[in-house]
Amino acid sequence: MAADLTFTSWSRPEAGHRWMVAEPVNGSGESHRYLVPGVGMAHRYGPASETGLFRHFAEIEPTEASVLGFADAYGSLGGTVAEPIAIPSGERSIVGAGERLRSWVSEIDAMRRMVNLWDLARSRDARLGDYVLWQEPGVRWVDADQRGRLQSSEWIATDKLYPDLLDRFPRGDVVGPALHLVQRQVNRKLVEHGVSARLLWDARYTRLGLHIVPLSLIGFLWFQFAQAIDGDKDYRRCPDCRKWFESTPHATRSDRVFCSPSCKASAHRKKIAEARRLYAGGVGIKEIARQLDSTPAKVQGWVNPSGRQSK
């Protein structure tokens, strides 16, 4: 089966999104705040071009402002996160789709926890023992907030729950149980958000092929995470735009620092501007070169393009 996302696309409204109070179309009569897309044209794009988007999603702050910023950049999550709501329109209401903050936070938290667990298991980090605990009658996963308050807990295996699985783990092993839990949770999300196989035509409509196609942005994010696990992929953060991007050798040069040529150029412009600011403030060429991890010759050219020798 091909894990081809060529046919995956999503939309973001040119007018952005907004938060509004509306009622769900379920007859409850209760009003909630929903994230809804703006009215007008929508721009379609391929989220697969953002190779580390699932990591970016996992770092979103659980606030309306942060969620709004992500939605404006990448679109609504869709899938099971979206609810049919009654949107006021003049004297009537029209049925539309809205997404609650609590639904976004639930998905963000789930992604954050599993990405963190996967990272710790891959690196065999000693901190993994804070999350995977051997207790009677088996091994369980726990996650707490910054104040130490328990947020999530699940038995991975016990002598009655998946006893065969428990027998496969050496007593005290935390890596195996952690990876098994990540597998279980990611599979749950792939099913929940409708990520499944489809027979699709190629671009020229000459051949049918089998593809895995997420039908929503949230489905794509979980599938992208699954692909990262499958490929044991490495990621790094772009020092300019701060986005995550895949740095696995087959995807990019291992020494690549920036996510794109535009970010590389942007960082270079910022370095030149900072060099000129420091120079105008009386900092010497050699010290500027040290602070910006450059050479005196390059700094000389940045602060004095005319070629006149500077101190």
Looking at this protein, list some descriptive labels.
alpha+beta; 2 domains; 9 helices; 311 residues; 24% strand; three-stranded antiparallel sheet; 36% helix
What's this entry about, in short?
It contains nine helices and 13 strands. The protein has 311 residues and is of the alpha+beta class.
Quaternary state of this entry equals: single chain
Strand content: 15-25%
N-to-C CA distance: 64 Å
**Domains (count):** 2
Unreliable segments of 5+ consecutive residues: none
Which strand order does the major sheet show?
3-2-5-6
Q: Report Rg.
A: 25 Å
Helix and strand sequence: EEEEHHEEHEEEHHEEHEEHHH
Characterization of the model:
The longest helix has 23 residues, at 101-123. The mean pLDDT is 89. The termini are far apart. The chain is globular, with a radius of gyration of 25 Å. Helices cover 36% and strands 24% of the residues. Helix 3 packs parallel to helix 6 (217-230), helix 5 packs antiparallel against helix 6 (217-230) and helix 8 (285-291) crosses helix 9 (296-303). It folds into two domains: 1-112 and 194-259, no CATH class; 261-303. It contains nine helices and 13 strands. The chain has 311 residues and is α+β, with helices and mostly antiparallel strands. The strands form five sheets. Strands 3-2-5-6 form a four-stranded antiparallel β-sheet. Strands 7-8-9 form a three-stranded antiparallel β-sheet.
